[in-house]
């Protein structure tokens, strides 16, 4: 009688998860180009168990490994391009600062002259010259401020990318811990049921 109950119980344990698995087929993110998180979740749900470990196929592991390396390469390429852009902007800012210093020096020399100034052989009134020089300086300052803004904006984007990467790593670690705790609880419950059934 006990053996009959045990056989029925084992049959139900095998049949119920199998029928539930047939009802809901997981979407394969490796085929649909899903993100890394969905690929990890898919591997976790579709991999088999061995003791307290998850067993995945070499093909799935290699595919996931390739996808992670591709994602890291893309992020590295993005960071390198941002770094190169920052360097270009710094060079441009230094060039503009040099031009601004030269313009200020020319303005100082112009102030030393009296009423008229000779520019490229053309004589001008001092007020007109000051107006033109001021426009050039303001334009250079606006351009310098624009490049300074772009540099700061790129720096903020880089910091945000690093923060997002850290948050993703933290979420992954938390997910791993939750999965391990859940798996340990299920193992304990299964062991308790096995012991209970042996006693019956």
Description:
The protein has 200 residues and is mainly alpha-helical. The chain has one domain (29-199). The protein is built from 4 helices and 4 strands.
Number of helices: 4
Major sheet description: 2 strands, antiparallel
Count of all domains: 1
The H/E string reads HHEEHEEH
The backbone outline, from C-alpha atoms, is rod-shaped
Radius of gyration: 35 Å
Say how many strands there are.
4
Poorly predicted segments:
19-23
Neighbour order of strands in the largest sheet: 1-2
- Beginning-to-end CA distance, first to last residue: 11 Å
Structural class by secondary-structure content: mainly alpha
How big a fraction of the residues is strand? Answer: 5-15%
Taking all residues together, what is the mean pLDDT?
Answer: 81
- Name the helicity range: over 70%
